[in-house]
Design brief:
There is one protein chain. This protein folds into two domains: 165 residues, NAD(P)-binding Rossmann-like Domain (Rossmann fold, 3-Layer(aba) Sandwich); 118 residues, N-(1-d-carboxylethyl)-l-norvaline Dehydrogenase, domain 2 (Orthogonal Bundle), CATH 1.10.1040. It has 13 helices and nine strands. Strands 1, 2, 3, 4, 5, 6, 7, 8 and 9 form a nine-stranded mixed β-sheet that branches. Helix 7 packs across helix 11. It binds nicotinamide-adenine-dinucleotide. Nicotinamide-adenine-dinucleotide binds next to helix 3, strand 7, helix 5 and helix 11. The site of nicotinamide-adenine-dinucleotide has 28 residues, from helix 3, strand 7, helix 5 and helix 11.
């Protein structure tokens, strides 16, 4: 297939690599032109999608961008630059694999439908490691017939592809997933700091948790690997996690469902983001919580 891929960041680069390796013909683009040049140099047949018209013959255009603002600017355009949708052919599919805002995704789907373009939201979970080995969990929102047409492409990047509802449903699912994940990370980090202050060994604590009911994704895949090691380089930024939590809390409000714990968790991530600044990895929440008494 001819595939446009926009957003070659921590996740997008390895995902686009798997598509190129599977034999698809790629046009790639990113604000970071160095990354685009590197991708084109490393993948024979891939071309630089320097202008929106270079996506005109794509069967599928995939976005893997930070948020809904970037997705809308890229797909629908801005005052300064036209979007890719304007030149996409009728019947082509725009798949937003970013973690975007569900309500805005619904609106985007409707706008694209008016232009004759199909839309799926297909955000992912599993982090950089699973983006590299093609085993991401992918949650799909949109028309099941369109999803079936894109199934083989999605399976190149992920293992568990689940249709969760209409347009926007994938993004709702993703935000709620990350709320549970972020709350679990804070709980694990707080417990480790308390245990350490009491005299427990953090490594031993994680081993016990992983054999007990406290086991979660953080205890299994983050504590030793990125926190206790001091590496703090999981590849998922703290700012993006704070963004996801904002989406989840907004979703709760939109359906009038209180999220008391969620509000606390969101505030903690926003405080950490403000203190640690741009570029901090989300696993640095562990060091942010050390000695925090309020
Ligand atoms: P990233 O910041 O590493 O990459 C984003 C890329 O988009 C960058 O290369 C940036 O230059 C590019 N970009 C930004 N605005 C653009 C625009 N207007 N036009 C073209 N390119 C633009 O982010 P990431 O970690 O790859 O995450 C991408 C999305 O996937 C986010 O929505 C994130 O929440 C989600 N996600 C990330 C992870 C992870 O572990 N990193 C896991 C699951 C989901």
């Amino acid at each position: 297939m001819k595939i446009g891929f926009i957003g070659l960041g921590m996740m997008g680069y390895p995902m686009a690599h798997l598509l190129a390796r599977a034999g698809h013909q790629l046009a790639v683009s990113d604000l970071n032109t160095e990354t685009v040049s590197r991708f084109v140099a490393e993948h024979a047949g891939a071309v630089q999608g320097a202008s929106p018209t270079q996506f005109a013959d794509a069967d599928i255009v995939i976005t893997m961008l930070p948020d809904s603002n970037a997705v809308e600017a890229t797909v629908l355009g801005t005052d300064a630059k036209p979007g890719v949708a304007a030149s996409m052919k009728r019947g082509a599919v725009l798949i937003d694999m970013s973690s975007s805002e569900p309500m805005r995704s619904r609106q985007l789907a409707a706008t694209l439908a008016d232009m004759g373009i199909d839309y799926l939201d297909a955000p992912v979970s599993g982090g950089v490691k699973r983006a590299v080995d093609g085993s991401l969990a992918i949650m799909v929102g949109g028309d099941p017939v369109v999803a079936a047409r894109c199934d083989a492409v999605l399976k190149t990047m992920g293992k568990n592809i689940t249709q969760v509802g209409k347009a926007g449903a994938g993004h709702a699912m993703k935000a709620l997933n990350n709320y549970v994940s972020a709350a679990g990370l804070v709980a694990a980090a707080e417990a480790l700091h308390v245990g350490k202050a009491f005299g427990l060994d953090p490594e031993a604590m994680v081993n016990v948790m992983n054999n007990s009911t406290a086991k979660n994704n953080t205890t299994e895949n983050k504590v030793k690997q990125f926190m206790l090691s001091g590496a703090f380089n999981s590849g998922f930024s703290l700012a993006l996690m704070a963004k996801d939590l904002g989406i989840a809390m907004g979703l709760g409000k939109s359906v009038s469902q209180p999220m008391q714990l969620g509000d606390e968790v969101l505030q903690l991530w926003r405080d950490a983001n403000e203190k640690l600044g741009k570029g901090a990895d989300h696993t640095e929440m562990y060091r942010f919580l050390e000695g925090k008494d309020e």
